[in-house]
Write a sequence for this structure.
């Protein structure tokens, strides 16, 4: 038995997610909902035999009995206006916008804690890419006083939503590094790079390593986490071996003698978006991972064991 | 003095200069530098972490003293000069602007890469709503054409910026490059234009004078040229050269020379000379603040700093991507290990 699903938002993310979801055994996608009948996403949806209405989220509410779950790829503004309505209609919402109405979920780290939540927020692309590594460093230490991420994305893959509200990205991401990654203090930075041909999404994680820590344990934990994320984001990889550099470093969480530097690259799967748009691909891949986990949980009443 | 000046001089010793001392300013340094600049008649003094508000980080270097403590100090000491802060969207937050406004900061400079002006809308509007004079600051301007740069400047103007800066962050521009860009912006904009020059190709003062001749109304300098890369346009030299040209600056060159010699030079861990690495930044068009970070990475991984900088230039990295220095150093080290 599969969950009956709709994707709301026929832009790049919604359309890429559609192509991924059509391959799923547990998520039965029947509609891509947009507002522009001429959008490429809706045209593709129609040609693939899906319903492709252009009446926006209200269409889903009118057909609420047809859906168990929606994936919201619109905007934070729209999600804030509708999240109650989805809940009242008994539809689970996986939120790909930065609206942050439901619990924050990083697919590789904490999704098993929130499989019954009526609304799940997927943080940011940078959050999905870097929180797992912060978590990986944290679990190898007694404490992680400070962690930082720097995300560089190709200008062409940063849409108007990100550009007009860049503070949302850094604030939400640093919150995830603390609350889910386990860092006591955290900072997130985003840089846009206009190079042509466009660059792959790059993420760097810096983590303060306290005195007396087991450096090998940190490195091994990072490699384990790489495997775990790669299992559902095939283009995710350590671009270089993780290194521990000598300081001292005067972080906001106190002075540490060393820092871990974890250099990541995310290539997109090329489903709808080009390969360089790893930032968008990791969001749709995380949405699939979480959606399928919720579906499995509903059917069996059990969650698959957390591989932490 | 402002009524008799042909251009407005903005001093960034306490912001861009922060790169050259790895963000290790203390309250006493701030006090002396602000007093010196103020006494010389400088109208605007910029202060922040080198990478702008919120820049203190692993990636850009941690500040020795929280920048807001230093900013408060500058606001307190300053007599006539307006205190300014720089902010790069993606690094600093609109909330930082609200905090520094409370401390007494009167100007916000919102900086983006020269093709990404649209990420400044939120921050320019917040700064304006706080009643701050707001400048749009286009970094790495050598990477955009005069026409492209004018389009980006128009965006910033449409968000409400009171003036727009062309920042030669890599110190990569010739005088002709500067003239064409200033000319394009002056023709396109209703608001004044400014130029922020670096000295990696030994062109900073000449480029600033050329910018003035093309109609720039704001020019940046730093005392003794203290700043990213091979340094900035030295404030005291710009003042002296302007005098020679008969261009009114409204500042006292002799007092600026005293400040550079007696206060700023003693703080400098190294003089701002154009050595190989500094020249390479300008030649390869690489962001100036990569200089000291690439030097540390070169030592740490036993690779050549020159090779790192050239590879960064090939990759077309932009300001803020300091993490790529480690990436390149590790790849060079691995490549050399394979060759052996």
């Amino acid at each position: 038995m599969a969950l009956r699903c709709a994707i709301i938002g026929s832009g790049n993310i919604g359309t890429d997610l559609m192509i991924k979801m059509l391959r799923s055994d547990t998520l039965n996608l029947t509609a891509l909902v947009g507002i522009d009948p001429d959008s490429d996403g809706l045209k593709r949806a129609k040609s693939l035999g899906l319903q492709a209405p252009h009446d926006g989220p209200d269409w889903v509410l009118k057909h609420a009995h047809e859906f168990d779950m929606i994936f919201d790829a619109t905007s934070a503004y729209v999600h804030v206006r509708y999240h109650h309505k989805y809940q009242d209609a008994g539809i689970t919402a996986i939120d790909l916008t930065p609206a942050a109405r439901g619990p924050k979920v990083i697919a590789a780290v904490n999704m098993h804690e929130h499989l019954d939540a009526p609304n799940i927020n997927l943080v940011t692309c940078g959050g999905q890419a870097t929180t797992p590594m912060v978590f990986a460093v944290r679990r190898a230490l007694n404490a992680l006083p400070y962690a930082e991420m720097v995300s560089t994305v190709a200008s062409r893959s940063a849409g108007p939503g990100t550009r007009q509200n860049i503070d949302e990205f850094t604030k939400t991401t640093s919150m995830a590094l603390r609350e889910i990654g386990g860092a006591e203090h955290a900072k997130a930075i985003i840089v846009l790079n206009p190079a042509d041909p466009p660059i792959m999404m790059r993420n760097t994680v810096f983590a303060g390593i306290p005195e007396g820590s087991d450096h090998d344990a940190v490195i091994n934990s990072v490699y384990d986490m790489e495997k775990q994320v790669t299992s559902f984001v095939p283009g995710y990889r350590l671009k270089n071996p993780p290194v521990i550099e000598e300081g001292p470093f005067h972080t906001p969480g106190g002075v540490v003698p060393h820092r871990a530097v974890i250099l990541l690259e995310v290539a997109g799967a090329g489903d709808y978006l080009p390969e360089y748009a790893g930032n968008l691909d990791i969001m749709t891949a995380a949405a699939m991972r979480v959606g399928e986990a919720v579906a499995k949980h509903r059917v069996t009443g059990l969650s698959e064991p957390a591989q932490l | 003095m402002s009524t008799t000046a042909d251009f407005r001089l903005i001093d960034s010793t306490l912001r861009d200069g922060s790169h050259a001392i790895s963000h290790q300013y203390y309250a006493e340094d701030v006090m002396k530098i602000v007093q010196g600049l103020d006494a010389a008649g400088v109208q605007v003094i910029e202060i922040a972490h080198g990478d702008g508000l919120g820049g203190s980080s692993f990636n850009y270097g941690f500040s020795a003293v929280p920048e807001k403590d230093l900013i408060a100090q500058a606001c307190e000491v300053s007599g006539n000069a307006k205190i300014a802060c720089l902010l790069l969207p993606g690094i600093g937050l609109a909330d930082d602007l609200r905090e520094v406004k409370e401390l007494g900061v009167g100007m916000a400079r919102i900086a983006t890469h020269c093709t990404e002006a649209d990420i400044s809308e939120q921050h320019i509007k917040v700064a304006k709503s706080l009643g701050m004079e707001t400048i749009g600051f286009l970094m790495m301007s050598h990477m955009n054409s005069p026409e492209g740069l004018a389009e980006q400047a128009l965006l910033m103007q449409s968000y409400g910026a009171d003036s727009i800066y062309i920042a030669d962050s890599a110190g990569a521009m010739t005088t002709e490059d500067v003239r064409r860009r200033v000319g394009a912006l002056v023709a396109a904009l209703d608001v004044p234009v400014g130029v922020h020059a670096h000295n990696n190709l030994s062109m900073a003062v000449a480029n600033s004078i050329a910018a003035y001749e093309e109609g720039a109304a704001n020019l940046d300098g730093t005392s003794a040229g203290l700043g990213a890369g091979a340094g900035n346009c030295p404030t005291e030299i710009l003042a002296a050269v302007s005098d020679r040209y008969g261009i009114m600056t409204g500042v006292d060159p002799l007092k600026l020379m005293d400040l550079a010699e007696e206060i700023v030079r003693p703080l400098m861990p190294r003089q701002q000379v154009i050595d190989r690495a500094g020249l390479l930044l300008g030649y390869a068009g690489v962001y100036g603040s990569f200089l000291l970070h690439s030097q540390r990475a070169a030592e740490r991984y036993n690779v050549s700093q020159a090779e790192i900088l050239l590879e960064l230039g090939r990759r077309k990295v932009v300001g803020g991507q300091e993490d790529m220095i480690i990436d390149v150093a590790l790849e060079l080290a691995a490549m050399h290990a394979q060759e052996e």
About this structure: Residues 278-300 of chain A form the longest helix (23 residues). Chain A is about 35% helix and 25% strand. The two ends of chain A are 28 Å apart (CA to CA).
